[in-house]
Amino acid sequence: MIPPVEATETITLSPARDGRLVPYLVIAFGALAAGVVLGEGVLAAIGVPFALALALGLRRLGQVEVNARMILDSDQVLEGDVVTGKILVWWDGDFDAHVMLDRLKGVVTGSGEGASRRVLGCSSVELPVRMDAVQWGRHSLGELWLRLTLPFGLLTWTGRIMAGPAIRVLPGSERLNKLLSPPQSRAVWGLHRSSRLGDGHEFAELRPYVPGDRLRDLNWAATARHGRAFVNRHHPEVSGEVVIAIDALDDGSAAAGAVLARTARVAWGLASLHMRANDRVGLVGLGGSTQWLPPAGGRLAQYRLMETLLRIGGEAADRVMSSRQNVAVPRAALVIVLTTLHDAAVLRVLTKWRARGRSIAVVMIDVMDQLGPVESEADRLARRLWAFELAGRRSALRKIGIPVVQAPLDGAMTPVIGALQRARRASTLRRAR
Amino acid sequence: MSRTRVLFGWGSVVLVILVVGIALTASPTGVRWWLAVVGVVGVLMAVPAAFSDPRELTPALVLSLAPVAVLLFGDATSWLVPPLASLLLVAAELNAMGWAGQGTRVDAVPRRLAQAGMLGVLGLAGAAVVLALGQRSWLSGTVAVLVAAAAVSGVGALVLSRTRRG
Prior knowledge:
heterodimer, A: alpha/beta, elongated, disordered C terminus, B: mainly alpha, globular
C-alpha cells in the first residue's frame, strides 16, 4: 500500500489595501479640510460615512500567520486516475477566506469539483482534493493561494501559501502492460552484431578444426558430411550506446497530450529492448532536460528509465520552460529520434547532429488520427498541404542519411526495428566489449 | 465576467447616477450647469471604475460628491446631504463587491448586501448627527473639524505606510 504524501508550510501574510481605502481617506480628510478652509463645520457631514467605513475597515492592521498542510492519498497514479487528498489551512483570528489551488499541471479538476473554497468568519478551512490525472509525467501539484478579508474590511491578506507536492502520473494501465512486455524483444539482438569474429551466439562461418578450438564449437553435421572436423565461428555480441530523443515540444494543441503519450509508449518499448541487450540507454527530451541511464538491467534500471520519461513528460506540460537543444550526444551512440516532425526546430537539431557525424534514425509519430473527420474542402486541402510538407521534411532527412520510419498506431515494434537496422547499416559505430 | 459581477458593477453606477441626479435637481439654478458638467464626468468615470482595470474609484467619488456638497449651503436642501453621501458609500461598496468576486458565490450575496446596507445606515446616522451639531451656532465647528482632520490624517498616514496596494 502506498503511504499518503504530506507537505506543510507556515508563512506570514502582510496586509494589502483595498481599492476603496484611498478614496475613502481622500473624501473623509477632504471634507474635514474643506470645513476648516471655508469655515463651515457642516461640510464634515459629507465625510462622516466614509470616516466610519474607515474606522470599521481598519480595525485589524497587522500581519497574519497562516499554516497549511496538503495531504495526498498517493503521489503515484495512473493516467486517467483520480488524485485524492485534502488541504488544511488555518490562521489566527476569524476571517472570510478564499483558498484556491492554482497553476495545476498534468491534472484537472474533476467534474463538479472545484479547486477553490470560500468560508465566512472562520479560522480554518478544509479543501478536499479530487482531480483527474490527464497527462503522464512528474508534476508539481500547483500552488495553494489564500485570500483573507474581514467583514467591512478595507485590507486583504493575500499570498501563495505553499507549492503542492510532486506527483507521478504513469501512463495508463493498458498502455503500461504493453510497454513492459514488447512482443518482438529479441529482434534487437541482431542490431549489435560486430563485424569481428569471436565468442557469441550469432553464427558467422565454418572453418576446419585446428588444435585449441573448443569441442563445444564442433559442427557435427558438417564434420559428418566432409569427413573431417569443422567448427562454428561466431560474431561476438557487443553493447552499444543508444540515445532516444523525444520531441517534447508541446504545440499547445488539444492532441498534444495524446501525442506525447504515444511517443512515450514507443520510447519505453525501445529503451526496454536496448536495456535488455545490455546497452547504455540515454534519454533526451527536446524541450526538456537530458539524463543518462547507467548500463544496468532489472527493475532498478527500468524505474530510472520511467523516472526520466516522467520528467520529460512533466516538463512538456510546463510550457513556460524554454527548450534546450544543445545536447551533447556521444559520437558512438545511435540516436533514435521520436518526433512528429511538426517543429522545424527538431529538424535543425537533427541536421546539426548529422553534420557532426552522429548516426540517427527517426521514428515519426503519426498524429493525423487526432484531427478528427474532414469537415470541409478547405480542411481537406489543408491536410493535403500538411502531408506534402511532412513528406518534404522526411525527404530532406533521408537526403542527409537519416532514415525515417513511421510508428504504427497499434504499437507494433517491427517497423521501428527495421529503421534501426537501416541506421545501423548507415554508420553506427560500436565498441567491442 | 459573471452575472453577479455585472449586476454589482452596474448597481454601483446606477447609485452614482441617482445621487448626482437628485443633487442636481435640488441644487441652486445658478450653478446647476457647472455642477452638471462635474457630475456627468463623475458618472462617466464610475463606469470604468466598475469594469476596467486598474480600478480608479477616487475621481468618480470625489466628482460625484461635488453637487452634493453644494446642497449644504441651502437651508431647505442640507438634509439631503447625509442620505446622498451614504448612498455614494453604498455605491463604492457595491463596486468593491464586484471587484472582489464575492458575487460568484450566490449564498454570500445577501450577506454582503446586508453589510453594505448596514454601513450605509451607520453613515447616514453619523452624517445626520454631525450635520445637526454643525448647524448649532453654540458649537465651535472649526475646532472640532481641526481635531477630527488631524486624527483622520494620522490614521491615514499610519495605514498607508503599513500596507501595500492590493
